[in-house]
Structures are given as C-alpha cells and as structure tokens.
Amino acid sequence: MMRLELVKRPQRSMLFSALSPFIAFVLTIIAGAILFALLGVNPVKAFQIYFLEPVSQVWQLHELAIKAAPLILIGVGLSVCYRANIWNIGAEGQFILGGIVGSSIPVLFPQFEGPLVLPLMLLFGMVGGAAYAAIPALLKARFNTNEILTSLMLVYVAQLFLDWLVRGPWRDPKGFNFPQTIQFNDSAILPELMPASGRANWGFVFALVAAVLVWILMSRMLKGFEVRVLGSSPRAGRFAGFGINRMVFFAFMLSGALAGLAGISEVSGAIGQLQPVISPGYGFAAIIVAFLGRLNPLGIVAAGLVLALTYLGGEAVQSALGISDKVARVFQGMLLFFVLGCDTLIHYRIRLIGLATPTLEAAPKLEEAR
Amino acid sequence: MDITVNILLTIATAATPLLIAAIGELVVERSGVLNLGVEGMMIMGAVGGFGAGYLTGSPWIGLLAAIALGAVFSLLFAVMTLSLATNQVATGLSLTLLGLGLSGMMGTSFVGQPGARLPNLDIPGLTAIPVIGRLLFGQDPIFYISIALTVAVMWFLFKTRTGLTLRSIGDSHTSAHALGIKVIRYRYLAVIFGGACAGLAGGHLSLVYTPQWVENMTAGRGWIALALVVFASWRPWRVLAGAYIFGAVWIGQLHAQAFGIPVPSQLLSSLPYLATIVVLVLISRNKRLTMMNTPASLGQPFVPDR
Question: Which residues are the signal sequence here (chain B) (predicted)?
C-alpha cells in the first residue's frame, strides 16, 4: 500500500512551471500509446499518422491554422476569466451567438456589398458574443448565481436557437429544404491569407493579434493587475478598491467578444454560410487550451496549435485506420488531466510513502552490522 | 385517469436519473468537494451499462457495469483533487470532457443496436390494482432504488455519527483534521459514492429511459443535477422535489411537442435549460441564506500538514 504525500514548496518552482506542459504532453503520448495498443493498432504507426502526417505538407499547415484560430481566440479570452477566478465555461454558446449575429448582415441583406460588410460583420459578431456572455455575468453580479451552471446552460440554448434559425426563418428558400442559410456573397467572406498555398484565412491573424493585446493587458496594464489580484485574493482586491462585480462583467464580456469574433470568423472564413452545427466543440476545447497554455496568452498560442493538431490527427486516424475521430476528444481530455496533475509539482513536492518506512529503520541496523 | 397515470409514470422515469445523480453529488458536496464531472461520469455509466447489457444480453449486468464504471471514473477525479490537490473546478470539467470523448469512442459500434431493457416490476395482484397499482408496484427497479437511496442518504447524513463527521468535514476540513478525522479518506469514499450514483443514473438512461446508445445522450442532465443540489440547498428531500419538478418540465415539453403546439420545437427543447437558470436565480438571490447553506469548505483544496 503506497500513499502520496504533498510537501509544500517554500516558493513556486520555476523549473516545473516551465516543464509541466511538456511532461503532461509526454504522459499523454504514453497513455495514448496504451490506448492505441488496446485498440489493436501499432502505436508507432498510429502516432505517425496522428501527429506527423497532418502537418507534412504546406496546405495542411493552413488547415492547422484554421483549426487553431478559434481555439486561440477563445482560449485567450478564457484565460482572463480564469485568472480572475471567474468560471466562464459557456464559450461554445458565445461562439455560436457571435456566428449568428455576425451572419445577420449577409443573410438578411444579401444585396449589401462592399468593403464595409466584413468589418461590420466582425463587429456584430463580437457584440453578439459579448452580449450573450453578459447574461451569466449579470446573473452573477446581480443575483449571486453560479456562473458555471448558467453559462453552460446557455450553450444548449444557443445550439437550439441556431438550429431553429437555419431550419426556420433563415433557411435558404432555394436550398432544397436543407437546413442552412444562403451562401454569403463575396464581400462577406473572410479573405484567405495566401490563396496560392492553402485555405488559411485572416482568423489566424486575429488570433495572434488578440493574444498579443491580451498579453499586454495582463502584464503591462493596471487592469491586468486588477484581474490577478481579484483572482488570487478577492479580499485584498476589495481593499484596493477593485470592484468584483465590474470585474465579472469585464472578464465575461471580453471573453464573450473574443469567442464571438471566433464564431463569425469561422462562419465567414471556413464555412461561408450558417448551418445547424458550426463548431466541433471549440468552446470546450479552448478551456483545455487555456490551461495547457498556463493561462498565459503567448503560451495559449502554442497550446492552440497543439490542440488543433489533435483535431487534425483525429480525422487522419479515422480515415487511415478506421478509428473513431472521438479519439481526438479523448486525447484532449487526457491532456488537460495531465496538465492539471503536473501543475501540482509547481507548488508541491510529491513524496511516495510506503506503510513501512524502511529508510529510517534500516539505518541503525546497518550501524550494528558494522 | 389512465392518461394521468401514464403522465405521472413518464415524469417519474424522467426524474429518476436526475434524482440519483443529484443525491450522489449532494453527498460529495456535503464532504466539501465540488465534482463538476457528473455529466462525464453519467455518460460513462450510460455507455458502460448499454455495452454490458448488449454484449451479455442481461440488463442487470448492464446495471452493475454502469455503477462500476461511474465509480472507477470518479476515482480519477479523487486521485487528482484529493491526493494531488488540483483545482476542483478545472479537474471536474476535464472529467466531463474526457467522459464525453471516451464514451463516444467506446460506443461507436453500439450506435443503432437494440439494447436490453430492465423489466418493470410486476407483482401479481398488486400491480393490477387500478390507478395506484402501476404507480407503486409497476415501475422500473431503478425508480425504487432512487427513492430508497434518497431516504438512506437522509438518514445517513442527519441520523448517524459518520454522517455528522462527513458534514463537519464539509464545513471545515482544517478543524476536522485537527480532531484527528481522516479528511482525505472520507472524501475519497464520498467521491466514489457520487461516481457510482452518476454511473447508475447514466445506466438508467440507456437501460430504461431509452434502451439504446446515442452519443451525448445525457444531454446536460449531469449539469442539471449539479444545479439541483444548489437549488435544494444541500438537503436530500428538496433534491427529490426538485428532480420531480424538472422531470415534469422535461416531460411537459416533450408532450407539448407531440401535441404540435404552434411554438418552435427548439424553444420547447430549451425549456429545461432555461428553467434551470430561472431556478438558480431564484434560489441564489438571497446571498446570506445561500452562504449559510453552502458547505463552507466546498471546492477548496485540502493538503493535510503534519
């Protein structure tokens, strides 16, 4: 019978702070190898298909950027929330509302063209996401309601609302009854970055810009300091005159706006119309991205690319080996588990204790034997 | 009369998984641990219960498998949050994400297969009594388990010494530890009990409610169970009442859809989720009362010093 004991470190370990995402990644690979072996697939071959083949050609790197963009945008926003100890887990719903509100322009005014269309759509998307995120913020600030549960419930509501729109009032009348809106006109499509080599669009640039801006906000500005103080010690924050309710609104609406921007970028860039499902769970995967990136905007860029690779790898093993692409979500879940576990090493030393503690008792006997 | 009985029976069937999952989580939260992985443990129970029932042909083995899988899955959460002192919110979330992914992968070959259904109780003579016969003696076995479980948890928490100890840990783990109570051991057992309950609730979905495997078939019920615990201010009998109110909402919207009420079906489908939000707002509005009822050390990591 073994037991774990945690011993508090005098200060946080810089070494493990830097290493823990990598240790977590290695542990995920090991657990993944066991998983593949259980499924009767040679792990080496599976990993080659999962992690290497999806990024072996230039056009595939474009696909990686397309998948990473929403993850980074949402993850960066969520990191601000989680730093402030505010638990927005409804980014999936804010993503959908951003997509819907942004799409209202090309769907309702298909004749409206020109250079103004796209900026307006992006703005609408951000407003839509922020407004939807303001609901749980308002309920928390005004009625003390648990934001975890309300923000999550609103995800289901958003999914059903989108479903109703594309099957009902917004359905393309000439679309043979398919549940989708009209194809957006050209000026409502987010342009590709380098059309010669692949499909990647401006969404990825938005993600990088957002990451840098939020990094500046968090590390160089008073607001970022406020976020961190209120997150680690709400009492100290109150003494400093920082308002907790204002912070709830700020964190929710910032992350909602970024999720909304991700939503409209995805619809306008990668899809080109609204359909019943516009996200393969980006809003939830971004929670993993935020933690894997250590709640640091620049770390989140790297983490977003890793998670994007798990999506592409899932598709690759599905087509090459016939394994369900759900394997991607298993990998993502395991990754978050191991990241959280490894984070313990930053604050604690782990000692393994057996029921008998041989080292202490063996020492005097050694003396006698001599 | 027959219609009323039928509606009451369907409400009970819809309420049972919510009740079981919420009662389990109530015990966990009374011990001071917040496990947001209910949805994940529930879906694991659903896929495990369906799979074992389908492969062996016996829904009873399916039932046991559902309980076991939920418990084993919760152990993962226990090791992380109790032995490694990780953040409970984040760990619970990752348990849910992992459960949804893992169940989807495990269930790929079960999609569209006919499952085994647990038979309803049928006592000769008693079940045939008009009106009350079927309500009292003709339901599925898990319904009776859910009621027994609620009564047992009520008795355990408020009438036994162990229950008192568990509640004291939830209110102050440092004081409990100072009194020599094995905080971590109690919490391990509470979390595993919660996992077994969530697994059983999932098993009810795939062995009674709709005896088949559909991906994401829990449809947020695990989260509603979590909300029910808050709604009930951590009291078992209020969980029972809340579960039946939500069961009624769930069934009500299904009936409304079937009757073809001129309201979009999506709006009706979103009623249980909207109702959850409304209920949470109503119950949390009084800040002082909420603070008084919430286990004081809920969600805080505990590392015993020596």
Answer: none
